[in-house]
Automatic annotation (TrEMBL):
<keyword id="KW-0456">Lyase</keyword>
<dbReference type="GO" id="GO:0016832">
    <property type="term" value="F:aldehyde-lyase activity"/>
</dbReference>
<keyword id="KW-0479">Metal-binding</keyword>
<dbReference type="InterPro" id="IPR036409">
    <property type="entry name" value="Aldolase_II/adducin_N_sf"/>
</dbReference>
<dbReference type="InterPro" id="IPR050013">
    <property type="entry name" value="OtnC"/>
</dbReference>
<keyword id="KW-0862">Zinc</keyword>
<dbReference type="GO" id="GO:0005829">
    <property type="term" value="C:cytosol"/>
</dbReference>
<dbReference type="Pfam" id="PF00596">
    <property type="entry name" value="Aldolase_II"/>
</dbReference>
<protein>
    <recommendedName>
        <fullName>3-oxo-tetronate 4-phosphate decarboxylase</fullName>
        <ecNumber>4.1.1.104</ecNumber>
    </recommendedName>
</protein>
<feature type="domain" description="Class II aldolase/adducin N-terminal">
    <location>
        <begin position="10"/>
        <end position="191"/>
    </location>
</feature>
<dbReference type="InterPro" id="IPR050197">
    <property type="entry name" value="Aldolase_class_II_sugar_metab"/>
</dbReference>
<comment type="function">
    <text>Catalyzes the decarboxylation of 3-oxo-tetronate 4-phosphate to dihydroxyacetone phosphate (DHAP) and CO(2).</text>
</comment>
<dbReference type="InterPro" id="IPR001303">
    <property type="entry name" value="Aldolase_II/adducin_N"/>
</dbReference>
<comment type="similarity">
    <text>Belongs to the aldolase class II family. AraD/FucA subfamily.</text>
</comment>
<dbReference type="GO" id="GO:0019323">
    <property type="term" value="P:pentose catabolic process"/>
</dbReference>
<dbReference type="GO" id="GO:0046872">
    <property type="term" value="F:metal ion binding"/>
</dbReference>
<keyword id="KW-0119">Carbohydrate metabolism</keyword>
Amino acid sequence: MSTKETKTREAICALGAKLAARGLCPGTSGNISARIDDGWLMTPTNSSLGELLPGQLSKLDLSGKHVGGDPPTKEALLHRSVYDVRPKDGAIVHLHCTHAVAISCLDPSCHHNKETTLPPITPYFVMRVGKLPLVPYFKPGDPKLADAIRDYAKGHRAVLLANHGPVVAGTSLSAASASIEELEETAKLHLLLQGFKVRLLSEAQVHEVEEAFPS
Ligand SMILES: O=C(O)[C@@H](O)C(=O)COP(=O)(O)O
Ligand SMILES: [Zn+2]
């Protein structure tokens, strides 16, 4: 096994432990994956992200065949679809973090608009997440979900699966993690602000941040 693969295995386990310590992946929910030279490493199905072992991680070859470790997450095909349409990204995190899941369960008429479920409340949300479109509901692991996500993930690093939770891609595990944590915090803020008059960032302020901090 290459040193890079060994390090990636350790990084996935460390990230799982961090997300679990922050209460972002209840039970055995969520999954993490990373690209390696000869395929992908993914978290095994039904595993607790806080208790991952490097040697148990599932390895898929470049054709998507399971070639090592425990059986992969039921969302393996979904992860592969996102990698397919986002060739520059190297890692994906999917969580059932409470506030983002709450947003995913709202009637779409309660979402900010058709392009994004959450509005631009803070510059850091614009930097780390940007727009957050809603992917229509399909049951977890459904190949139709893996197919549907393609159109949304092509132009967005973060998407929200209806009645399910967020999926975020990044150039690295730490980039994907920073984005999904910011997404969850913004979902929480958005819910906290319900009933108040909120000043959103203007379109010009959003552009200013996008230009100053390109992703
Ligand atoms: O919601 C689901 O069932 C999956 O998307 C999930 O979060 C955990 O499934 P596994 O990765 O197969 O454990
Ligand atoms: Zn899930």
